[in-house]
Amino acid sequence: GGVAATVVVALVGGWFVITEGGKSRFTGSQLGFISYLNYDADPYFRTNTCFLTSESDNLAYFDEVGCVNYDPGRRNVMILGDSHAAQYYAGLARRRPDIQFAQVTASGCRPVLGAEGEPRCTGLMEKAFTTYLSEHEYDAVILAGRWETADLPRLPETVRMLSYQVGQVIVLGPIMEYRQALPRLLARHEATDADVEAAQFYSEIKEMDRLIEEVLRDSPGAYFSIFDTLCDGRDCQMIATNGQPLQFDSSHLTYQGAVDVVGALLKQGMLR
Q1: Tens of pLDDT along 131-159?
Q2: For every residue of the chain, which 3-state class applies, written as one string?
Q3: For a pLDDT cut of 70, what percent of the chain falls above it?
Q4: What are 110-138's pLDDT values in tens digits?
Q5: Taking every pair of C-alpha atoms in the chain, what is the biggest distance, in angstroms?
């Protein structure tokens, strides 16, 4: 019995080696989707320099010279927030090379006054509000984050305060999230499959989008709904223009995804 079990295991293992993990079971597009499970977003997020994480859990890692790079000869815009702000940097820089973008981002809190969370993030947000935005005259600041209900009372106050310091305050709403990584979902199902639709946190994101728009209705800031940009009813965009997943995990944009979303926002008048 032991010998038979060993033979079976060897045969199965040999089959996986010969077929490279059974690649023939998948279509080319499925393999393309699966490859995005190993997507390296660090170069686009500028991780551990302009985007602090648990691996760079100290303000000393933040590269002030490279990240808060004000250029008096161009329009200057600061991106402020967590990973859901960092994901837009590369897309913004690609779409608007005429603008100098400063990036002040960290995981662990959202860009609001009195933010609660990881010290690396709360400390960086406080420094942005009290120092970075006061040192220069920014044309705009973009606030983005994985917004939570606790942020809603503080967001209008933050926008009003910033409106006295910068030319325009822009708030980006929440992005669609999934119960598992989008590339895995797309590899298993068609983009129009009911299982993919069921995996969306559709109602939750739609409600958060509505609440943020409501609390900012009388504020001096400009609100842009990522939800409305990507979703037409229950039909939400999941594929980027290059044919690959719009997001590489459950909630963060790929580089091409960021380029696509920023392009759509610019058409709506953002940074005009």
Answers
A1: 999 999 999 999 999 999 999 999 999 99
A2: CHHHHHHHHHHHHHHHHHCCCCHHHCCHHHHHHHHHHHCCCHHHHCECCCEECHHHCCHHHCCHHHHCCCCCCCEEEEEEECHHHHCCHHHHHHHCCCEEEEEEEECCCCCCCCCCCCHHHHHHHHHHHHHHHHHCCCCEEEEECCCCHHHCCHHHHHHHHHHCCCCCEEEECCCCCECCCHHHHHHHCCCCCHHHHHCECHHHHHHHHHHHHHHCCCCCCEEECHHHHHEECCEECCECCCCCECECCCCCECHHHHHHHHHHHHHCCCCC
A3: 89
A4: 999 999 999 999 999 999 999 999 999 99
A5: 79
pLDDT higher than threshold 90 for residue 19: no
Cα 129 to Cα 109: distance, rounded to the nearest angstrom: 14
Q: What is the C-alpha end-to-end distance of the chain, expressed in Å? A: 73
Work out the number of other CB atoms within 10 angstroms of the CB of residue 202.
Answer: 18
Specify whether the CB–CB gap between 83 and 252 falls below 8 A.
Answer: yes
Full-model pTM: 0.88
